[in-house]
Amino acid sequence: MLTVATGNKAVAAAVKQACPSVVAAYPITPQTEIVEQIAEYVTSGELKSQYIPVESEHSAMAACIGASVTGVRTFTATSSHGLHYMHEMVNWAAGARLPIVMANVNRALGPGWNIWAEHTDAFQERDTGWLQVYVASVQEAYDATLMAFRIAEHESVLLPVMVNLDGFLLSHSMQPLETVEIGDFIPPIRLPHAIDTAHPMGYGTLTGPDQYFKLRWDIERSMRDSAGVIRQTEDEFAKRFGRRYDAVEKYQCDDAEVVVVAMGTLGKEAEVAVDLLRNEGVPAGSMRIRWLRPFPRLDLSGRDVVVIDRDYSFGFGGVIARSLAATERAKPFSVIAGLGGQEVTYDDIAGFVRSRRPGEEYWFGVMPDV
Is 149 helix (H, G, I), strand (E, B) or coil? Predict the structure, then answer.
């Protein structure tokens, strides 16, 4: 069915179709619309789910953990400081190998107090064992949420998945949305280590030095295996519903001599910048990274690279730029732009490309123009 919706409403629509048994949530701007819509679905009877309005985000994740460990499907949503209030439980969810799906509406962290888009909130959770996908349209928010349940619950993964969408830029933007009849696309959940009252056992006990590292390796093994599951899921989604996704969305890259790498809505803005540069005779292309974890491989050899990070790791640099320097042996022109909702247009992105300085870092709006 074709309609028009915000990114938040698109996520809620996908959750309704995935039909989790338990949804636990606490409101926070700009995520609140997701859980409000889900609550309306539950109240109207459109979604047969137990909705738990908890007293905090920490409790929301704790409730999802408690429900998930019994072997049922669960969902929650949050943003920014709410995500960090969950931090202890975010680690527990991955360590307990629970396929919880969470939508995170990316928002800057205070101080100073800011409710607009930035990726640092989710990037600070990148080493917890959660898979992370970043979307760039309302349609993709819906599609990625549907796929997240299938990926998380796959027997080779059994790790939680975080679906990230830019605050206000996408969460509150109205765009066309085509919903689908999912049929058996998301199979019934089967958690092999679910609590079974008929066969009681210890759970979450102290793990000594002779075993702990094995548990951490098991998470890493499944993170590596998830790359194949993601590809299979996206292939099946394309076959059934006609929309194709990849870990990295490439645009005009076949003959590109300079490539812009970005995430989320900036990745879409970069495509417009590429068209502008092509009209000027600049052989540019763009790569939009969708999956932060597992981190994808990019073919950047022989090309100039301009990376736009809507994030920053103090004392280290832009996370994507530094990651590519390590994994691809690239020397990107690292642009820090869009923090706290700072406006970045396709003209700005084209300017970054025209004046690139490989291996250097540039803070848009702070340093002199490049």
Answer: helix
